[in-house]
Amino acid sequence: MSSTDKGYIIQTSGSVNNKFSSRVSASIKGRTTFSRILLFVIFIVLAKPGLSQGFDGGLLAGFNGSQVRGDLYSNGFHKMGLLAGAWVQTSLNDNFYWTMELKYSQKGSRMNPSKKNDYYLYIYRLNYIDIPVAFGYHNSDYYSFLMGLSFNYLMSRSAEDSFGKIELSQNLHSWEIAAFAGIRIDFEQMVRRDWASKFKLDFRFQFSALPIYTTNNKLFYYSPYSQFNSVISTALYYTVDW
Predict the structure, then answer these.
(1) Domains detected in the chain
(2) Residue 49 or residue 147, greater confidence
(3) What is the pTM of this model?
(4) How far apart are CA 71 and CA 219, in angstroms?
């Protein structure tokens, strides 16, 4: 199958320099915006004791199972990836809370070689910085539900198949807006130990609210013009005492 069939259009010469300059400029702007958001989150975490006694925060780490809907290989959440970062949270009242996170998240899609696919390997790697903002509802003292939007910046990308690396087109967007929903459980309910009171276990599903890639390739079965990240994640949240 050719690169065009996969939805990856190899860039030709002509306006390469102009496209390269535009790409560099967009990358610089994206990194500047991300740096400002990063500093804002760090400020909230460090300033927590002076802001309010209702603020909590800490670290998180976990795993993603992901696929890219629309890339012709999305037949399951086979692309495993890491996620890690920091979080802050404050209560709005007895039942509702607001939370914000900053995390590195590995996404993409994968098709492992098998007899069914003629032993064809395909790996699509997308590495993002995710900035989720969510509202949560405490259904009990032991677990809560949450939902929100995540604003994500693409840090790096790559693709390869059985024949080697695939050159990606520039139609893949640097920014992603995704919607997500999940449940958060007190880890102490699963592990009856004093130290477990500082941990929460988070399960969530995230899906791109807007396409991450646009193309005119009519072969795309999910949409004739787009691709979407689809991610199931599990993470452990640790509360840091200031």
Answers:
(1) 16-239 (2.40.160.20)
(2) 147
(3) 0.76
(4) 9
